[in-house]
From TrEMBL:
<feature type="signal peptide">
    <location>
        <begin position="1"/>
        <end position="19"/>
    </location>
</feature>
<dbReference type="GO" id="GO:0030313">
    <property type="term" value="C:cell envelope"/>
</dbReference>
<keyword id="KW-0560">Oxidoreductase</keyword>
<dbReference type="GO" id="GO:0050304">
    <property type="term" value="F:nitrous-oxide reductase activity"/>
</dbReference>
<dbReference type="GO" id="GO:0005507">
    <property type="term" value="F:copper ion binding"/>
</dbReference>
<dbReference type="InterPro" id="IPR026468">
    <property type="entry name" value="Nitrous_oxide_Rdtase_Sec-dep"/>
</dbReference>
<dbReference type="InterPro" id="IPR041114">
    <property type="entry name" value="Nos_propeller"/>
</dbReference>
<dbReference type="InterPro" id="IPR015943">
    <property type="entry name" value="WD40/YVTN_repeat-like_dom_sf"/>
</dbReference>
<dbReference type="InterPro" id="IPR001505">
    <property type="entry name" value="Copper_CuA"/>
</dbReference>
<protein>
    <submittedName>
        <fullName>Sec-dependent nitrous-oxide reductase</fullName>
        <ecNumber>1.7.2.4</ecNumber>
    </submittedName>
</protein>
<dbReference type="Pfam" id="PF18764">
    <property type="entry name" value="nos_propeller"/>
</dbReference>
<dbReference type="InterPro" id="IPR011045">
    <property type="entry name" value="N2O_reductase_N"/>
</dbReference>
<keyword id="KW-0186">Copper</keyword>
<dbReference type="InterPro" id="IPR008972">
    <property type="entry name" value="Cupredoxin"/>
</dbReference>
<keyword id="KW-0732">Signal</keyword>
<dbReference type="InterPro" id="IPR051403">
    <property type="entry name" value="NosZ/Cyto_c_oxidase_sub2"/>
</dbReference>
<keyword id="KW-0479">Metal-binding</keyword>
Amino acid sequence: MKNSILYIFSLIISASFFSCNNSENSKNGDRGALASSAAEKVYVAPGEHDDFYAFISGGYSGNLTVYGLPSGRMFKEIPVFSQFPTSGYGYSEETKPMLNTSHGFIPWDDSHHPDISQTEGKLDGRWIFINGNNTPRIAKIDLKTFETTEIIEVPNSAGNHSSSFVTENTEYVVAGTRFSVPVPQQDMPINEYKGKFKGTLSFISVAPETGRMNIKFQLIMPGFDYDLSHPGRGKSHGWFFFTTYNTEEANTLLEVNASQNDKDFIAAVNWKKIEEYVNNGGGKMMPAEYAHNVYDDHTHTATSTMKKEVLTVDPTEVPGAVFLLPTPKSPHGCDVDPSGEYIIGNGKLSADLTIHSFTKMIDAIENKRFDGDAYGIPILKFEDVLAGTVKQAGLGPLHTEFDGKGNAYTTFFISSELVKWNVETQEVIDRQPNYYSVGHVMIPGGNSAHPFGKYAVSMNKITKDRYLPTGPELEHSAQLFDISGDKMELLLDFPTHGEPHYAAGIPAEIIKENSQKIYKLAENKHEYATIANGDARVERDGNEVHVYMTMIRSHFTPDNIEGIKVGDKVYFHITNHEQDFDVPHGFAMIGANNAELLIMPGQTKTLTWEPKKVGVWPFYCTDFCSALHQEMQGYIRVSPKDSNIDLSWSLGED
Ligand code: K7E
Ligand code: CUA
């Protein structure tokens, strides 16, 4: 025990040394000729477009940000798990159901790993998936509209971290639990964790046409911490690999107690075998409660359905489906090279990188060369599956990506560097410092059979002196490298929003032509849409008032409403009648306890307002939409609760 504490201490101390060194470097940094050639490489002339989209997770912002590469310019923040006042996501009546869970309305999450849909191992650019860690959920964003269109909660999970990675035809998006818990949940002593808590690995099927998600099955695994995962591909398609730590099954002082075993495991799951088993009636339905939220582009409205059961699979009942590969030492990242042969365990407390061979693994399984079992799951022998080791590559390896040219790029958190090495020979080719303490690295297409090995983006945890100071709280910092040559070249620093963990990049041409420009008004099926201007009206139903409103440059119809009373609940259902690209209008109502709405052309959104004070209260458009934007305004007259003023409204006549 002492040893491991000392070891961790020495890692922490070396981390601070490295940081100091880096800081020196940056101040005396090599500006000049080098810098100007780097500047040219990231320069995207005014009006020109970037070559790649980068979708960078927001971590504790709960959202996903969209950047261009190589410029590092941010284009959009896509709200996913968090309420977003900028557009009204999670505030509008239409989008509130997106954030519904079995725990009620949850306006936030911690999102880590975006992954783009694939067809035959290639990025197809249809959807991007991302996990919510805290209240386990998987979200799907449609890359036509760049809007979150589906969120499914994952029951029997906690700390949904080894998520959300897709298989090579997007058959499944996978969600593994980081914290094992009682399954099903129950009231029990925490110190009875060992043997009683379980970790679930959920395989969520994705319908090929619609992308609709559905939990196909949950594998109930031993109570380890399932940290990261990646799919097999090519020869290993049909398998999925998960790193584990805390195979000690400690429930307290994990920083020491979960670092006892010399090796933890990578769990190899043959999902095709389990799929066959459940298709033939295998598995057990278990009562569960989880929300499935779906947004419809035509009704512009989300619905939330509470599901009541989930199909579970005991791995010991499907022989040949799950195996454990010993892997040093509390591995974090679990990465599979583009050929599908090599499975890399980034043992975060180890100085070496472990590379397993898929071929050797299959061979060992076929010859039944096992080294005992854990809760009935066969353990393979380390030497039997090992393809090789990258020796002393750095300190604190976290994640690895690939360039499609036979090279791997591993991040080292403690020694704060990006290390390039050859996958076949396991020799280190190059190393570049990161400013500071890198987490993930992203190469566009890095989690696919066909990466685009031109750029790598490292996402760093510590910013310190890289930018002008902004008080104690700083944005995180990403660094863009040109990886087209033998040596990596640092091109650019750019700040990122929230805490990026992973990111997913894709050549712009795969998605930009499909990017939707407007919603067609004629296809608007919203329950409260006002398609014809003459249909704008106000209706009362008890103390509920429904305002059917339209907006077009630069007018609201109606723009004056009387007969509203204190104690009413007013629903503004507003339809944007514009049919031109990039002409949203906003809507803000004084005293509303939510946010503004930003409404896209052809779309309907609803804001709720509960007036509390008598008076005449204005509303206005929040988006500068025309030269007469400042004139885009209106009034609501609010009378006392017992007044008998009739509802009336103006339709644009004088
Ligand atoms: Cu390493 Cu959540 Cu992928 Cu952060 S995780 S770095
Ligand atoms: Cu509409 Cu400003």
